[in-house]
Amino acid sequence: MYPAPISEYFAPSTLEECLDLLDQYGNQAKILAGGQSLIPLLKLRMADAPIIIDINRVIELQEFGEKFLESGNRVLRIGALTRHKTLASHPLVLSKYPIISDAAKYIGDVQIRNRGTIGGSLVHADPAADLPVPILVLDSTLRLVSKDGERTFSADEFFLGLMMTVIEPNEILAHIDIPSPQPGTGAAYYKYSAVFGDFAIISIGARITLQDGICQSSRIYLGGVNPRPQRAVETEEFLNGKTITSEILQKATDVMVEEVIVESDMRASDTFRKVLLKQYGFDVLSKAVQRAKEEQI
Amino acid sequence: MTTVSETKWVGRAIRRREDPRLLAGKGKYIGDITLPGTTYVHLVRSTHAHARIRNIDTTKAENYPGVVAVVTGEEVAAAMKPMLVPSIIPRLGGELQIPTVYPLAIDKVLWVGDPIVAIIAENKYIAEDAAQLVEIEYEPLPVLEDPEEALKSDSPKIHEDWKSNVLWHGELGDGDVEKAFREADYILSERFYGHRTGCAPLETRGAVASYDDFTGLTLYINSQRPHILRMALSQILNIPHDKVRVIAPKDVGGAFGTKAPIYREDLLICYLAMKLKRPVKWIENRMESLMTIGQERDQIHYLELAVRKDGKILGLRDRIIADVGDGRTGVYLGFVMPWLGAAYLTNAFDIPNVHIDLSCVVTNKPCLSPSRAFGEFPARFAMDYALHLVARELNLDPRDVFEKNIIKKFPYVTATGITHDSGDYVGAFKTLLEALDYDRVKQEQKEARKNGRLIGVGFAMGAEMSGIGSQVFVAMENQPGYGSATVKIDTHGMVQVLEGDSPQGQGHETTIAQAVADELGVNIDDIYISYGDTFATPFASGTLGNRGASYTVSAAVLACRKLKTKIQKIAAYLLGIESDSEEFIFANREVIWKKDNSKRVSLDDIADVAIMAPTKLPPGMEAGLEATAYFEANIASMLSIGVHGAVVEVNPKTGDYKILRYVVVDDCGVPINPMLVRGQVHGGVVMGIGNTRYEKYIYDEAGQPLCTTLMEYHMPSAADVPDIEVIEYNVPTPYTPLGTKGKGEGVPGPVPATLASAITDAIDRPGFKLLNLPLTPESIWRALNEDK
């Protein structure tokens, strides 16, 4: 379990240098951020990277905080190099976007959370990873940059399939912008895994906006179920416009279990995944509603 | 003047003397050993579970810069005898078919991971690069994954010269089983399955070998049994015994049984060092480790119990089918574990009439390697859970069924020939029920049920081997059972203990020192322990099967006692006392006359006389202060009891369960260091929970292993396990000098039946039973929905 030969290692300190290198080496290069996916893949020789570009010194990728866009909208900007630890425990996350902390705090173990980055996790696009689901649920936008310019995608456009995204070989994910929540919005995430901190057997993320007890809008994604986190569109439609009660959430859970396409693997069968979604779907929806009532997201 | 006080070290929970160096990162493991000019080995392993090798092309690998040599099977085989020489073949009667084993596959591979080509290079990166350039043409053969399939007469033969796929078949038992079943009021008959799981030590296997024509072969290896390995290497490689030195490193990062067999790689690394005349280093990577070692359990039990209506078990029949993998490791051949599972099947119960038919079947998987609770894990599950099923079927309280059947008189010999030396099993069992507050839990269970909560309580016993005496061990593994130790007092009055075993985390530097400190009246800081080097230590079978506290510590104590006789003679002579030699107390580094405490000599002065100034010794006395002892208990085997109990809550919608309490009542005779005993129990229970719920070596139909990283082989972390309560219930054994017995090896054994019975009690539905491990939430959910 030693990697194949690595001919060059670069550690640029600016985004510009980084983009030059990506432009020069393209497919030959792999970006090293926290290394929590790349290093194991290299050691297993499942990834081959003659050129390593270590971005840990690139300051432009380390933004974290609220920001006003030109449009006047306020967002939480999360630089691609933001560590899971920050997402799990930052006061801004805990107070306004606790769904991100719900997800980040059970990624792997302390060492992994100290090293691992959101950018690394999102571009790796493991369907059972923790961060894609809340990022999707929060209608985030992802900014990709390259020598050719910038491209912006909604999270839903960004993920294509099993470990596949829209990102081009000469591009890098710079940051994620999460829009400020509407008043009366709450969101929650739950993961069921075989052992603590493991990848999801199923994960559920939900966001609900309430006004006078009525669901104004909702967004639900399910992770670990098939090659890409799946949006539960019918469940959203079922919820929108309804007065939220326990029974409605129970029924919404049934709709969700019905519409999701699940696959079997070594960790669980498709049937059992549905059992888990039914068990925990209601809890996640309830928690999102509760947070909405507390005007949290 | 110091007063006479005997500081007792035995029984104190002192911190481990090993830990400071380990915590400071200064441990010396096999990976830390590199000799000048070392080369590195990477093995090309089979990607097929069963195939003929049509061609191997190593040209590109040989030409890769930095490659020292590329070696294939025939070359290695030509240089040695087939690996399974008689001294490492068990002699357990029955019918045994012995495979012909060489380090590398020659024309056929038998499992995914079977080593085929060795690449030796200037560094480990180059070795792995070159390994990717080796081209092997395979002709796939039918893959046998299911031992019951492999048993069928029309199945293809894995070892083509055998008459069947049965490596070993035999019968165990005694008594009139037919009569017991004729007289039974009720017969329980079930198929129990314990899946392939075991352990994954943090430190994988590893070896560094060097050779020159003058000193011969030196092999550093993290083996549990360096002396046995040395003996086998000399025989297989045809090297005189004085030219083979095996050294186990000071620190070994866990073994749990996996480093006890003699593996094909051990021979290969030695051969390569001899061929190249350069040091050769091989460290198994995690993937190889998960593909090769730590795979155990894997038994099917067709168990029948003949039961009287009051719950007394009159007789037992069991047909066991064990999947032993390819059967190609030395000492165990994969079948000693299931044999032990059969021999210890009746556990802590008095069942006079037993018949067990055991078939150990080869399949296209790696050979079973010993794993803590060694063969017993699935057997304990079948036996103890069956008792709970009996209780449910006959509407009896399971505690009465257990109590009625627990062994009460000692020594007790089971129908399978296992000797239980001493103890109070019923007392330990009752202590567990008290600690669980059994009646109250049953009451709370009713209350909780009204609120829709399913609480259950379960328990199981584990009579674990505590070393095995030569009477049994010679037959079982062709090795002596005694413990051995040499105790030397040096020129500075410090005490060196050389033991024949070779620990892997058990804490011998602490526990042996505690026992020796008491014997010689010294501080443990005056004692240093040496082990692992076969050129320095007395012969012994190794650190395994709970031998340490029963046999090895006892040998050290006996060696001290031999020395004490001599020391007292010297003391009497120096003090000018006419004394019978047993009249002295050893305390505070002094030898003190009991009759007059003012008459005393320091140990340093005695050492000085005995070693540096022998002219002052009593006339005619031999110089020096050292003694070697071999301890053999005056009984065939000793066992130590552990009783486990759990309270669980089950979610019937998902089958998920939470362990609310886990309690162990534990007897190790006399705990030398209670903290270490607790550590053993905690670790054992965690391993048991891991094996019961989380860990499984999974293979697909083509024999491909699906759990080759720790992302798939799920070991629990601290966050996954409950608080473990340990209650000591110690009954000193009369068969060791200090009353001590070993503890730790068998601790995982009672876990699956404990959890299965607790879950079944929580569900409490007629016909609901859990007959297959692992007990995952999904498997419980399925059991719940199948019987609806």
From TrEMBL, chain A:
GO molecular function, one term: FAD binding
Pfam families in alphabetical order: CO_deh_flav_C, FAD_binding_5
Boundaries of every FAD-binding PCMH-type domain copy: 2-183
Keyword Oxidoreductase attached: yes
Phosphoprotein in keyword set: no
Protein name per UniProt: Carbon-monoxide dehydrogenase medium subunit/2-furoyl-CoA dehydrogenase FAD binding subunit
PROSITE patterns with a match to the protein in the record: FAD_PCMH
InterPro entries: CO_DH_flav_C, CO_DH_flav_C_dom_sf, Diverse_Substr_Oxidored, FAD-bd_PCMH, FAD-bd_PCMH-like_sf, FAD-bd_PCMH_sub1, FAD-bd_PCMH_sub2, Mopterin_DH_FAD-bd
Recorded superkingdom: Bacteria
UniProt keyword annotations, A-Z: FAD, Flavoprotein, Oxidoreductase
Automatic annotation (TrEMBL), chain B:
Highest taxon in the source lineage: Bacteria
Entry keywords, A to Z: Molybdenum, Oxidoreductase
GO molecular function: iron ion binding; oxidoreductase activity
Keyword set includes Phosphoprotein: no
Database matches in Pfam families: Ald_Xan_dh_C, MoCoBD_1, MoCoBD_2
InterPro entries: Ald_Oxase/Xan_DH_a/b, Ald_Oxase/Xan_DH_a/b_sf, Ald_Oxase/xanthine_DH-like, AldOxase/xan_DH_MoCoBD1, AldOxase/xan_DH_MoCoBD2, AldOxase/xan_DH_Mopterin-bd_sf
Aldehyde oxidase/xanthine dehydrogenase a/b hammerhead domain mapped to chain residues: 24-142
Protein name: Carbon-monoxide dehydrogenase large subunit
Lineage, highest ranks first: Bacteria, Bacillati, Bacillota, Bacilli, Bacillales
